[in-house]
Amino acid sequence: xDFSIPTHAPKGIFFLPPSFEELTRRLTGRGTDSSDVIARRxxxxxxxxxHVSEFDYVIINDQLAQALDDLRxxxxxxxLSFGAQRVRHAALFxxxx
Length: 97
Known about the structure:
The chain is mainly α. The chain has helices spanning 20-30, 35-49, 64-79, 82-88, 90-96; strands at residues 13-16, 57-60. The mean pLDDT is 89.
């Protein structure tokens, strides 16, 4: 599976956990970080989530398969934007416009 981001992909994609409780469960469930590290990460995540409205797209990371489908949809849509199409099909646009 190719996860590379194309040149014309939107730069503002925010992955949001389904809930703060689920994020806490995921971080603690890994068993790899101390409680201090988890507390810092949760505080950082909460601060980052306050900026969600600044992003072009928001993907709720509840189910991995659905989140990947959503990401693919965003990337596909970005490839169809005027700017991307104008670059990809410059000769066509030059002839048609």
